[in-house]
Structures are given as structure tokens and as C-alpha cells.
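Q: Hi! First time asking for a complex rather than a single chain. Here are the components, and I think there are two in total. Is that enough to go on?
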Amino acid sequence: MSLSAGPAGGPVLVVGSVALDSVETPFGRVEGALGGSACYASVAAAFFSPVRMVAVVGEDFSYENVAQLAHHDVDLAGLRRVPGETFRWRGYYDYDLNQAHTISTELNVFEGFRPDLPEHYRHSPYAFLANIDPELQLSVLDQLVRPRLVACDTMNYWIERARDRVLEVLARVDIALMNDAEARQLCEEPNLITAARRILNYGPGIVIIKKGEHGALMLSRESYFSAPSYPLEEVRDPTGAGDTFAGGFLGYLARTGQTDDEALRRAVICGAVLASFTVEDFSLRRLFRLTQEEIVERYDEVLTMIRCGAL
Amino acid sequence: MSLSAGPAGGPVLVVGSVALDSVETPFGRVEGALGGSACYASVAAAFFSPVRMVAVVGEDFSYENVAQLAHHDVDLAGLRRVPGETFRWRGYYDYDLNQAHTISTELNVFEGFRPDLPEHYRHSPYAFLANIDPELQLSVLDQLVRPRLVACDTMNYWIERARDRVLEVLARVDIALMNDAEARQLCEEPNLITAARRILNYGPGIVIIKKGEHGALMLSRESYFSAPSYPLEEVRDPTGAGDTFAGGFLGYLARTGQTDDEALRRAVICGAVLASFTVEDFSLRRLFRLTQEEIVERYDEVLTMIRCGAL
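A: Yes, that's all I need. Here is the structure of the assembled complex.
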């Protein structure tokens, strides 16, 4: 398949947060820059497939931001604008870019977020439930009509406060994405492989463990795939890498319309490739100037990085 | 190439420590069990190629241990037995098996270790200088006559105390092996890829970064290879994994007689496969009961774990 082929599987629904992030890393800083899981995932998925976003913003959300998302073919019918301020996150990273340090989180209008799917969204064949309250993830699942493939993410906050609800979500999705620390925490199990296999027992047919600079693992009951991360010497801001990964992954599957192991593996590499671009700059800047040629080129590079012959 | 083919490149010299380890992990414990970098690397390499060991032991080193090493086709002409006690290490691992905690280190006869190569060792075409005082590594390099391929390891202890000597060694070897923390420390550089490239500038044509459960990276000026670790649910004792990796890696290269990028990649997987067996049990127990069939089978499994098609 070539990236210029048309979408075969249909649109991807993305539900998550839109945020205005203030981030400082050893390599620079931004104030009130576009962020949030729904933005990263939507723009990444939109490189491959039509995308429908469900999120909420406040009155301070600029037309410029809206225009940028719309320009990248994200359907914004599900983006509600309500009185108040947009979700704001302020944080920093030290040289250990794997660890985000939160300075402040202002939920603002995100606190009252109740995802309400526009009618034409309800038949979306693909859906990504980004890291939000599992109650809201369940409500989206209730609104979807026979989706073909649903993936979810979660985080330590919900695992600690609403573990049962997280497990309910996992029982109803096809693909669970989370990072290595979250998988270990969810299963109270230090061995990552054991933890991943246990998550499969919670329901999803596929679990994907994101390991940051160490790549990603994808497990099903029959298959195991280990993907490297693209080796970057200049990581400026890791914010949004995981959501970008999820968007690229699901967007690619939606484009191909395939869900076999081979397609899933290619989708994981697509996710890792998209994420590797996101972290090269702050906010969504790199994604906004990314081309399909660059995606294909880096994908091919990754293939040469993992090529190995038989004994 | 099949593992049953004869060695094409010639014997591997291994210089390092022989130790009697007392190790406790959440999965068991051993007292005074065979260990040390030279043992792990030699036995791993011996699965592929003849091995010549250079190390020192004390009067407490049992005939049983000698017999086990000899049984695995390790040439022990360079194993000196001197008055005193063998090097002893006592340590433990918590559930985070990536971090060894040292309780005590008794250098004993290892403190006076001066590697003196038997005459027939000096023409060894392959050599692994395990993690020992870089002065001793340099002395081995002085004794070797036109080796074809020399690899070295090092550790934080020497990087902190004898950085210049470590750099001298790196300037004289073909392949530098170290773990990710050591690479970052040596280069005072948080980005692992940047650190690895800087190590190439110190001299070796190839640098291999061992990342424990996250696999290994191999870089040269022209090539980049990312290898996964074999996914294990039962890791009993990670002691010796890195040295086993080095032994398997160099042993495989010695067997093939090849040093091209393709052979190096296969060698990295061989190293990772051998290491995955070592950590399944304490001391060298798993290596001592390992078969060539098991190596080939796990190697093939790893290939299926990294298989991915073009876009």
C-alpha cells in the first residue's frame, strides 16, 4: 500500500482533551500553546484518514487554533465551545525527558466535559478514546453504533481513582494502549510481559505498551511485536508523543481497512514514526509542517533499523 | 549459516573476572555460586567458537567449577590459581531487576590480577576485554598479536576513576560495549544516541549499547540496528546478562568469520538470545544446560518479533 492510496476503512473518531499548554524543557519553552490528547491524536490520524474530533474548549480558544486543526482535515463538528477557559496544563521536563513534571493543571471547561457525539459521528468505524475519565469513555462507547475497532488509553490518575471503571472500559475495547509504568501499576506486576498478558485477559484482543525512547510492544494472544523508537538526537518536547502514536496507529489502520497482524505491525511503526516527529518541536508545530513524504521516508528508515537475517 | 557449521574465524580470547557470587532476588538465592564476567562471556561464546579464558582464582575455587568450564570447551590455560580467596560479590535485586544492589565486594586474589597471556593465546583473532581495570585491558592489548576484532566493556567505577585510561582503551578496540547509563555517564550526555555517536568518535568503529529488558542498540558510522530483548516472564537473576551478551555476540562473529553489517546484526541477536537464557536461572545454571537447538529456536522467535513489512 502506498500513502497516496485512498482511505479504505473509514473515519476515525477521537475523543479527548484540547489544552493550552505551557511547557519548559532544557531546549526551550512555550506559553499557552495548542495541546491536549485529542489534538495530537487527531492531527496524527488525519495524515492517513478522515478524523472526527470530540472535545471541549473555552472562549479563550483562538480562531487560529481552530483554523489549524480544520486545515489538517479534522472534522470539528464535535468540538464544543463553552463559556469559561480552556483546559490549561503547565509543566516542565529536565534532561530526563521521559518524566513530565506538572506545575499546575487547570481543568476549567474540561471539568464539565460530557462527550456528546454529533449524529454523523455515531457510526464512525474507528474510535480512539484518549486518556479521559473512564466514565466518559464508557459514555462514548454507549453512543457508538457497531464500531469496527476501538482503542483506548488511560493513565495512573484513573488507575488509582477508578480502577473498576478502567477495567470496564478495557472489557469493551479492541485495543488497549498505555505506557509501561501504567501497565505495571494497573496489574500490580513488575514484569512488563506478564502485565501485558494480564491486560489481554481483561478483554482487549490487543495491548500496546508504549515505552518512550525504548519503543513499543504489541501483544495479542497469538503474536508479539517489538518496535523500536526512531533514534532522535534532538528531542525538544516529549509532550503528546503517546497520543500522536495512538493517532498515527489508528489512522493507518483506518486507511488500510485491515486488522490482520501484518497491518497492525505496520500501524505500530506508523505510530512510532509520527510520535518521533511530534517530539522534535514544541506543541503540534512539527506535525503541522510534516509531509507524507517525510513519514514514508522515516518509516523506511525504521525498517532498515530492525532488519536482520536468519542464522 | 547453520549452528552446526564449523568455526571459520578462530578462537575468542576472554579476559575478565571469575567470581563466587552470593545473590538474592525475589525469586531465590545462591551462595558462593560461579560467576564473574569471564565465566559468563566464555561459556556463552563457547556455544559458537573455541574460547580461551584469562582470569585468576583463589585456593577456594572448586574442581567442580573448573570441570564445568572445561566441559564447555573453555581453554583454561590462562586461568591462574594463586594463594588466597577467589573474588567474591554479594548483592541483591528487588523487583526492579534492572538495578543490582551490592552488599559487599571482596576483591581478594582479583586485586593482584595481572593478565599474562599464555603464548598460544597471543595470536587469538578475537578478544573480549570484559569490565576490568582499563590498565589491564591495555596490557592485554599490548600482548595481542594482530587481533582481527577486539571488543571491550567498562563500567561506572572506571569511568569515574580512570576516564582517560578508558578512553585509551576505546581508541584501540573495534567494538565498545556498555550499558545505557554508562554511555550517558562517559559522555556526560543525556541523549543516548548522541552519547553513542560520541563514543564512535573516541575510536571504535562500532558501539553497542545494552539496555537490559529494552534490548540493545548497535551503531556504526553507516548503520543503526535496534534489537529487542527476548520477552521473559520469569527472570530469576539478571547477574551476568551483559557479559553473556558480549560472549554470544563475539562467539557468533568468530564462528562465521564475517564482520559485515549483516553478520554483526545476527551477532547482536545471538548475544541477546544467550543473555535471555542466562537470566532465567541463577549463576551459569541455565547456560550449563542450554542446547544449540534452544538457541536456534529462540533466535527464530526473535526474528518473528521484529518482522514488519513495507508501507
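A: Chain B has a mean pLDDT of 96. Let me know if you'd like any chain examined more closely.
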